[in-house]
Amino acid sequence: MEYVYAALILNEAGEALTEDNITGVLEAAGVDVEESRVKALVAALEDVDIEEAIETAAAAPAAGAAAGAGGAAETDEEEAEEEAEAEAADEDDDEDEDDEAGGEGLGELFG
User: Fold this and answer.
1) Which of 42, 70, 79, 99 could, after both became Cys, cross-link 105 (CB 3.0–4.6 A)?
2) Is 107:35 a contact under the CB 8 Å cutoff?
3) Cα 20 to the chain's mean position, in Å?
């Protein structure tokens, strides 16, 4: 988990998510850094917009509460969020298959 936190710290500071930067943050925190985990994290986050992912994650519980409370018609934004959640679920399924096949996944890498 500390690897992900290092990436979030770098993102918040406006720094690039490079192997050297992540390693530096982890070493500064006293973590025994595993190079393979750093490489895997950098590769996994290569095409990820972290700010967008955070906003989507924060909006998902609110959208679920609103749908359960009122039953009102969904807006385009809510539909987009549901599609994003469905895609994330599909990716999770793909990761599960990868985990079974190779025994490695982000969950195993980062706890």
Assistant:
1) 99
2) no
3) 20
